[in-house]
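Why does residue order matter? Because the sequence determines the fold. Keep that principle in mind as you read this record.
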Amino acid sequence: MRVNQIMSRNVVTVPVEATIAEAAELMKAHDIGFLPVVTGDIVVGVVTDRDLVVRGICERVSPYLTPVRAVMTATPVWCYDHDVLTDAADILAANRVRRLVVVDSSKNLVGLLSMDDLAAHMSSDRLLGDLLRQVAG
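Structure:
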């Protein structure tokens, strides 16, 4: 099975110049905790709800003045939409992340893949168990 068969296609993104508060509002409105950060059509980072708290609020920055680029992870972990699920699982485990940005062969953002997506579709309990241990541990 391939990533493009199970990935989430409706990706909410946040512009790199948006504030932390604007990113939080997007997360709340869409009930999500992860946003690719974009400049134009290019993914330049990712930000999670945890990033907003730990790198933003706990550092006492103003959420209404601080741009999301100040708290984002600038090296997004990604896979191709045509990758097989076991390859995507390996990428998740190697990078100890719970979500991947999914790009097409031109490296355009086309979706997101989460551990939950994999858990619902992977046929090997052993592979899934290994992935969960590596990401969580």
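The chain has one domain: 3-136.
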